[in-house]
Automatic annotation (TrEMBL), chain A:
InterPro entries: 2Fe-2S-bd (IPR002888), 2Fe-2S-bd_dom_sf (IPR036884), 2Fe-2S_ferredoxin-like_sf (IPR036010), 2Fe-2S_ferredoxin-type (IPR001041), Beta-grasp_dom_sf (IPR012675), Diverse_Oxidoreductases (IPR051452). This is (2Fe-2S)-binding protein. It comes from the Bacteria. Pfam families: Fer2 (PF00111), Fer2_2 (PF01799). Pathway: Alkaloid degradation; nicotine degradation. Keywords: 2Fe-2S, Iron, Iron-sulfur, Metal-binding, Oxidoreductase. GO terms for molecular function: 2 iron, 2 sulfur cluster binding; metal ion binding; oxidoreductase activity. Residues 3-79 form the 2Fe-2S ferredoxin-type domain.
TrEMBL record, chain B:
GO terms for molecular function: FAD binding; oxidoreductase activity. Signal peptide: none annotated. Residues 1-174 form the FAD-binding PCMH-type domain. It comes from Nonomuraea terrae. This is Xanthine dehydrogenase family protein subunit M. InterPro entries: CO_DH_flav_C (IPR005107), CO_DH_flav_C_dom_sf (IPR036683), Diverse_Substr_Oxidored (IPR051312), FAD-bd_PCMH (IPR016166), FAD-bd_PCMH-like_sf (IPR036318), FAD-bd_PCMH_sub1 (IPR016167), FAD-bd_PCMH_sub2 (IPR016169), Mopterin_DH_FAD-bd (IPR002346). Keywords: FAD, Flavoprotein, Oxidoreductase. It holds the Pfam family CO_deh_flav_C.
TrEMBL record, chain C:
PANTHER family: ALDEHYDE OXIDASE 1-RELATED, XANTHINE DEHYDROGENASE. Keywords: Molybdenum, Oxidoreductase. Signal peptide: none annotated. Residues 20-135 form the Aldehyde oxidase/xanthine dehydrogenase a/b hammerhead domain. The keyword Oxidoreductase applies. This is Xanthine dehydrogenase family protein molybdopterin-binding subunit. It comes from Nonomuraea terrae. SUPFAM superfamilies: CO dehydrogenase molybdoprotein N-domain-like, Molybdenum cofactor-binding domain. Residues 606-627 are annotated as: Disordered. The keyword Oxidoreductase applies. It comes from the Bacteria.
Amino acid sequence: MEHEITLIVNGAARRVRVPARRLLSDCLRHDLGLTGTHVGCEHGVCGCCTVLLEGRPVRSCLTFAVTVDGAEITTVEGLAPADGRLSPVQRAFAECHGLQCGFCTPGFLCTVTALLAENPAPTEEEVLEGISGNLCRCTGYQNIVKAVHRAAELLAEEE
Amino acid sequence: MKPPPFDYHAPRDLGEALRTLAEVRGKVLAGGQSLIPMLNMRLAAPDHLVDINRVAGLDGLERSGDGVLVGATVRHADAERAEVHPLLTRALKLVAHPVIRNRGTVVGSLVHADPAAELPAVLAVLDGRVRLARWDGGVRVREVRARDFFTGPMESAVEPGELAVSAFFPALPPGGGSAFHEVARRHGDYALAGVCAVVTVDGGLVATARAACVGVGPVPVVVDVGEACAGRPPEDADWAGAAALVRDAAEPEDDIHASAAYRRHLVGVLAERALRDAAREGAARGA
Amino acid sequence: MTTRLFGEPVQRREDPRLLTGQGRYLDDLGRDALAAAFVRSPHAHARIRDIDVAPALDVEGLVAIYTWEDLPERVGRPLPLLIPHPALTHGRTAHPLARDVVRHVGEPVVMVVAADRYAAEDACALIEVEYESLKPVVGLEEAVQGANLVHHDVPGNIGAHLVQEVPAADGRGAREAIETAPHTLAFRLDIERSASMPLEGRGVYARWDGRDLRVYSSTQTSTSVRMAVAAALGLPLPQVEVIAPDVGGGFGVKIVHPWPEEILVPWAAMRLGREVKWAEDRREHFISSAHERGQVQYVRVGFDDDGRLLGLEVTILHDHGAYTPYGIIVPIVTSTQLLGPYKVGAYRVEFSSVYTNTVQVTPYRGAGRPQGVFCMERTMDKIARYLGKDRTEVRAANFIQPEEFPYDQGMTFQDGRPLIYDSGDYPEMLRMVKELIGWDSFERAPGRGIGIGCYVEGTGVGPYEGGHVQITSDGRVHVSTGLTSQGQGHETVFAQIAATELGVPIERISVVTGDTRRFGYAVGTFASRAAVVSGNAIALACRKVREKALRIAADALEADPADLEIADGVVHVAGTPRASIPLSTVAVLANPLRYAFDEEAARATQFSGTAAPDRPPVAEGEEPGLEGRDYYSPIRSTFAAGMHAAVVETDPDTAEIRIVRYAVVHDCGKLINPMIVEGQIHGGVAQGVGGALYERMVYDQHGQLVNASFMDFLMPYATEVPRVETAHLETPSPLNPLGIKGAGEAGVIPVSAVIASAVEDAEGIPIDRMPISPSDLFHLRAGRRR
């Protein structure tokens, strides 16, 4: 049986019919064509599929689309402002070389965006704790950590 | 790694939820952070899934002088941020990673009854309880104490058709201190072993001391070590002796991450650390 | 805007798309394609008795089910043995779908194609395969006993056996040199299995239009996949194109090809006349993609009072799993690269490459070097301990000296060419790493230790790569090379090379890799070779284009080509900036036209008066267009080197191991982009830390991989990886025009050796087995107390 649901994705209401078992990650990627959200393990450990649900980072591979009917979801495609520039977090990742293959990056960007919204000036420990649920196999994390601090600076400058 | 098909139910109120559960005997979906991985790996294939995320009235987080009542859909992150109970807050910071805690629920972790998880140990050491409801022409409720709730690895007292609607974590008494120490392979992993402790200090002397272990038995291993250390000032009590009692009570097993011998050793180390810290905090709070 | 970009930390050109969700990885393509899934063997070793697909036939959305029996002869053949070697006397490869016998858990048995992956998995779950279980062979010791066989026709489970000997200068062999040495030591070293484990699994997506086949694969070699697919499907090569889209990490596992799915998915697409896609899930990746690292190494060494090696004998047991599609590259690399920056006197190395009923073993970043370096560096530490010397002193006593390059180690390297080091300065590197970590001022304390590890890495192996550079009439530069990218920043570093060679702003340069439509001749991305081989090829192609541009511009400017320079995309006479012509115009002039499609083009048409009427429009020996193609084929590998040092603390009670500091000195010749090189080192070290402290592939006695998930295969998070302090030494390679050496694998190579060295220093217990967990350390401590 299929369910008709509405997701507010990156500010736009999207109606979609899904079977109950449709994972939010698959709904975003395959039903809505938002392939920026990546799937790296489908058991909730790697963090590649992290999106913002009502502003909070969650694993879209551990969420059924039907469960979040009516909710607001932000994916990596919705992080940049509409003017075509990159968001401060995205800019900081580029500046600090915080990505290599880019596969885990959308999950990190969503996680870090939420982290800095809640804690605009995190300590080193808070940064590590904040990104501790996201795996990256390329960067060794050092430049990601650097990018989080840099993003905090950029956000502060924009205030 | 896609979940098998199931019939989906999304009740709006408790009565509907319980009637549905009574009828279909389905699996309850709350935060889904343990259930959905099992579905994705097709290790579980329930015919019916009863999603309680929309059930009104289950998201309460009520603090009173006696303790904290946590509703079935309260997320780890919300309970953690509310700082309603020092030991619960400490334990929540050890549960997986922040992103998982945004979705996972406190009650769900209890019902999942993973012996390596932190929250069952917390409920057990505090002698808390879980409220279970079912439909029997009306809402029938029973309360199960922690010692009866955890019945085996991944097994709880929840009967088919029942829903755990809340959990109650008793407050620490005046002079009560707590601590939670664990060793995990990676930050956020299930612990190789962990110990939480509650120690009360009354008039400068240790009055009670309890510890509960994670990861070293089929259910949380609760040990009352009051006799080994009561009646002495916290800085003077035989914590090593008390920790040895905890260590001896543990029933660890070998797995790919650590040997049983190492786990047992860890329990001793962590129990002493936790008991000392809890006593220190108890003394400070009692003062 | 400067165009001298070689050596600058230029921000990556890949990033804007990857940061905004606009990357195109394999599973982002083919939204309407059918999905494939596989029934994989649950047994490590079994005979297939029967396959009953009937229960699955009613699954909604099911399109097709294929077993080996359904495959045409050509498609069902065993997969190719990619790198034959005379010592690989018993090479064996799998069929794309199992025929009769399965030899590891995860081996594909049945292919299902359905409307989506959910339906495909539903069908897989219903297909019933009846197996007759056979005795599994698990673990090296069991395998070499040969009581049970992985392949009935491979006695003793020995796939390959190779002995290599390099006598001492006086002609004595290693055994004699060891026996007559003043001091000898003998010991065993173990390294467990790990795996590349990129966050994007493998994947294949194919479309067939009735004549041409297009295949997208998350691969490290699109050109070779193309040849393999064309061969297996019997298609003429020009009718097959293979594209590596954005690839979410490779680290070695994606250099293997063709994977069964790379044959089966295109075949199914042709047979069904529908687009078919398979995106590997994580569980599949654990049990059906390759692993590496597992080796047992026995060492005998003879040395003098100064710790100078006189003879070294190493016997290696290498577990290559159930099949050998990639030959015996890993133990060959261990055998040769074990030598590191040292002169070992006489050397004898022998390996047996052994079958087990486990996932096949093929190179993972480092490719046998971590094991070899672990072997040599543990040897150095043991000699130092035995003689009571500082560990760095023993190493220094054995270094090849700067004036001894090129240095011939007297062996044959993995490319079949002599193992001759091109350049390096190991004493200086040691001085640098000691200074960086503070070796001489380190305060030793119980539970606090310092360790070191040195390595040499042969990089940039041949046979060749090519580059194509085209300047179009809009002044843009289009660079393509056939090898592929998995996050190394090739679009940026190759653009830096082109910008520098051509004098064009980097913004006008675009780079395409791994697309056979753009460049058909290539080998692939492995062995830290992309920058060296493709980088130099692109530089050479740029030089051809530049020469042609100058020739045409000289004609137009009535100047001598030797007097011309290019800056900011404009050719001008040196010292006379006003006598100039933009490359866009040169591109127009390079391509005489009959038809104009825009104003620029009009300048090249036949009545525009730009061509001399007394010469053919395209002069003899010239070709139309401002483009060039060239290849770089290295005579042999370049040899990068590095030295790492670390400080660790061990908890006296819990035996937890914490890396407090980690220092890297690295020499990859001339740096193209130091930011990217550092990123490669950071990532390599993190993988090394995983291999040293966390990651192992645990098989039980039945051949089940018991930790096939990210819950239990412990890849480090940010909380587990230390901050890496780096310093660079640049000894240019004399072998190639750009003077560069490879950097991709470097970071991972010595980490297990370094951490073992530091933990041993902290604990005073020999550390001979990696990875090491707190539980392992606890038991080592308990053993010492006994």
